[in-house]
Amino acid sequence: MRRTLILAGLVALGATLVVLVRGIDVALEARRFGARRTAEGWEIDGRRASPGSADALDDLLETVVGLRAVDSFRSRDTASYGLERPRATIEVVTARGVRRLAIGDLNAAGSALYARRSGDPRVLQVGSALLTDLERVFFNRDGPQSSG
Question: Can you give the pLDDT at residue 96?
C-alpha cells in the first residue's frame, strides 16, 4: 500500500512538472527546433504545431521530465563519451529557469546514451529510446517527404 502511494506521488509530481514546462529547445546534430507552450497549445519554430507535432512534443516532454539514469559515474574524460561535442542538446524552459541535457554517444551495447545535465559532474547513461522521441518531433514537424 505504501509503495503504491509513493508511486502515485511520483506520477503526480511528473504530471505537474510537465504542465509547468513552458518550452523545449532541441538540437540534434544539424537539426534544431524550439517549441513553446501557449494558452492555445504548442508552437514550434514560431508556428502553431500540428496535432502530430503537439502529441510528439508532449511525449518528448514526458520522457525528458521522467528521465532516469540507468547508470551514473564520475569522469573528467567527457570526450570518450561524446560529451565534448554532443550529438544532441535538450533545454527545458520553466518559470524557474533553463535545464540543459547534453547527449553524447551510444554505449558499447547500443542500449543507452551517455548524457550530462548542466551543473552535474556525473556522466549518466539514459535509455536510447530518447532518440526515438526526438526523431518523432522532427518527423512530425517536417512531414513525410513526398515522392513527387
Answer: 85
- Sign of the CA dihedral with 105 first, then 141, 44, and 32 last: positive
Nearest CA to 18 out of 64, 78, 86 is that of 64
Residue ranges, the chain, pLDDT below 70: 1-19, 144-148
Contact status, residue 65 vs residue 17, Cβ threshold 8 Å: yes
Contact 128, 118 (CB under 8 A): no
* CB of 106 closer than 8 Å to CB of 115: no
Tell me how far the alpha carbon of residue 148 is from its chain's centroid: 33
* 13 half-sphere exposure, CB direction, 13 A CA radius: 8
* Cα–Cα dist 97/62, whole Å: 18
- The reported pTM is 0.81
